[in-house]
Amino acid sequence: HEGKIILVMESSKGDADLYVSDATLHPSFDDYELQSTTCGQDVIVVPSFFQRPVGIGIYGHPSHMESEFEIKVYHDRTVQEDPFSESSYDPEEREANQRKQQAPQGTSQDEESIFWTILIGILKLILEILF
Description:
By secondary structure, the chain is of the alpha+beta class. The chain has helices at about 90-100, 110-130, and strands at about 5-15, 15-20, 35, 40-45, 55-60, 70-75. Strands 4-1-6 form a three-stranded antiparallel β-sheet, with no helix packed on it. The longest helix has 22 residues, at about 110-130. The N and C termini lie far apart (about 65 Å).
């Protein structure tokens, strides 16, 4: 299919990781264009400019003897793709952004600057005492 494709994989046992490539039909953990190697849900957004067919590789993490997973493929027809956006979903970055949005707005840059100034002063004092 042309357009953006979304791959969503959930490991029910073990830890399977997802690798995607438009250069090879057999991507591996060291030859791929996009990857998702989380311990939970793995999501990759395959951009519309990727050549078809797209190769998908799924590998179990070596810390588990077996991995079982379910993968779902969605064809996204609703969103116009931004050529400057990220090609792959990063769940850690998303969580960090959500934490920043949920943080109280009362913390200002001045307070942060004072904190770092004090911390650096304490570290300098410790270094002077030790050396």
